[in-house]
Write a structure and sequence with these properties.
alpha+beta, Immunoglobulin-like, eight-stranded antiparallel beta sheet, three-stranded antiparallel beta sheet, 3 helices, elongated
């Protein structure tokens, strides 16, 4: 019968018979005990080296990030170029302004001769207005070319009574030009309310009209000409009567420009 060896007893000698298994060979490394272990991996390795199953996703994300970076650089370059061009245009405009010192021309209606108003007849009207317009170009270095395609219209309330056009001419620097334009209308039918209104205005000696002038012009500065610019003039005028000898009681003109 085999002997029991307790931890406090000395191991049996080589000659003694024993059924116990021989002890495992000794090693310098400690033998791990069963349980749960924590494995520490360097931080740079965790971020730089993706797991094999996520390598394709990592490559896709890296490519997308590179594309976004390229797009951002292109947008920044484009924005910088646009801002540079705008700055250069602003500087050029400022230089031109201080060199030429442009002034807006002044426009006014000097006289109006009216024909063709028979308010006692029920037949349609064929009014005629001979309008004299005063254009004052007070610029020292800028001339104005008045081109074809202008229009002049006269309205009573919202009714277009007659229309015409300005002559084609060149206005030099520091110049005042008076030009007369003949405006004609045909087959103008006024309602009973409009006839009563214009008759009452004539009896009071204050007949209001609105004159709208639109003229394409080119500005000349030295040897340089601009593209076509549309001059817009709207004048509120009041005359005392509807005859060839009518006189202007009051007038007020507004001026504007369409650059394109």
């Amino acid at each position: 019968m085999a002997e029991r060896i307790h931890p406090g007893d000395s191991p049996p000698s080589s000659g003694e018979h024993s059924n116990s298994k021989p002890a495992p060979p000794s090693s310098d490394k400690p033998i791990p005990q069963p349980g749960t272990y924590v494995v520490q991996i360097p931080k740079d390795q965790v971020y730089r080296v993706p797991p094999p199953d996520n390598s394709h996703r990592y490559a896709h994300l890296s490519k997308s990030k590179s594309s976004r970076s390229t797009c951002c650089r292109c947008c920044c370059c484009l924005l910088t170029t646009i801002l540079s061009l705008l700055l250069a245009a602003a500087i050029a405009a400022a230089v031109i302004y201080f060199v030429l010192k442009p002034e807006a021309p002044n426009y006014s209606v000097e006289s109006v001769a009216i024909k063709g108003f028979n308010l006692t007849s029920p037949s349609p009207l064929s009014p005629e207005f001979d309008v004299t317009v005063r254009a004052d170009n007070g610029n020292d270095k800028i001339g104005i070319y008045y081109k074809k395609g202008s229009s002049v219209n006269v309205y009573y309330q919202d009714i277009n009574l007659c229309n015409g056009a300005l002559p084609v001419f060149y206005q030099p620097t520091n110049n005042i030009t008076l030009f007369k334009t003949a405006l004609k209308g045909s087959g103008i039918e006024l309602t009973a309310a409009s006839l009563r209104s214009i008759s009452n205005d004539q009896n009071k000696g204050t007949v209001p009209f609105t004159l709208k002038l639109r003229a394409p012009v080119k500005i000349k500065a030295g040897s340089v000409k601009t593209w076509k610019i549309t001059v817009k003039v709207t004048c509120k005028i009041t005359v005392d009567k509807l005859t060839a000898s009518s006189k202007i009681v009051s007038k007020d003109c507004d001026y504007g420009v369409d650059l394109w």
